[in-house]
Design goal:
The chain has about 240 residues and is of the alpha/beta class. It is built from 6 helices and 7 strands. It has one domain. Strands 1, 2, 3, 4, 5, 6 and 7 form a 7-stranded mixed beta sheet that branches.
Length: about 240
């Protein structure tokens, strides 16, 4: 059973797509400094678009959790979609791999182990994959109309966590730093736009419905969350 009625799902998917395209336009002209900057701007734009233009009863509120509440999820942001006391959690790990720059080293070595930082994030995310919907969101600085075939034309290219883990397992051996060629190979297997991701969460295809405390007590959720949280509620 879907978490939201069809009209609210359509509207939320539209706002998600619009917000991603708005921030990609900023990335294209150099107004975004980092992948964390993109993620924060995306959730902020989504909040503003919902609160300014929703005609179906959607509302949005942002939370920045204090360090004591921040947990290691391997992700940058969480979007909570709720209706009453039931909700779904979507975790987002944003990456800006700068694929327009040949051989750009978008992944890095862990200081302690020397192994892949991205692989470590995938491993940490796996702890929560039985409860949350989790997506890897790859940002594209290419001009609209100039994206590579494996990217999305208007926004970011999204890969479900389980698909990224499946590709990771095919790399073999210790999780060494990902090359640009490996990332392109994974993206070439298929990506989704953010509207599809949000739709699948709202349709309860992805993620598990969970009981939620009364808003705005998001900061005391018993669920591990990254520090950047956007709560979307439906009347």
């Amino acid at each position: 059973m879907a978490l939201l009625p069809p009209n609210q799902i359509r509207e939320l998917c539209h706002f998600a797509s619009l917000s991603d395209k708005e921030i990609r336009s900023d990335l294209i002209i150099g107004e975004i400094a980092s992948e964390n900057d993109y993620t924060s701007n995306f959730t902020g734009a989504l909040r503003r678009n919902i609160n300014s233009y929703s005609h179906t009863g959607l509302k949005a509120k942002s939370f920045v959790l204090r360090p004591p509440e921040e947990r290691e999820t391997g992700c940058d942001a969480a979007i909570i979609v709720r209706r009453g006391r039931i909700g779904k959690i979507l975790l987002i790990e944003g990456k800006w791999p700068r694929l327009s720059t040949a051989n750009y080293k978008w992944d890095s070595k862990q200081t302690s182990s020397g192994l892949s930082h991205f692989s470590d994030q995938l491993s940490r995310q796996s702890t929560f994959a039985n409860r949350y919907a989790i997506v890897e969101m790859f940002y594209d600085e290419q001009a609209f109309g100039a994206s590579a075939s494996y990217m999305q034309p208007d926004g970011s290219a999204c890969v479900w966590h389980r698909d990224a883990v499946a590709f990771e397992s095919s790399r073999g051996g210790a999780p060494n730093v990902w090359s640009q060629a490996e990332l392109i190979a994974m993206l070439s297997q298929g990506t989704h736009d953010i509207a599809h991701i949000v739709e699948q969460v709202c349709l309860c295809v992805e993620g598990i419905p969970m009981g939620m405390p009364d808003s705005p007590r998001i900061d005391i959720l018993d669920f591990p969350l990254p520090s950047n949280v956007l709560e979307i509620s439906a009347e």
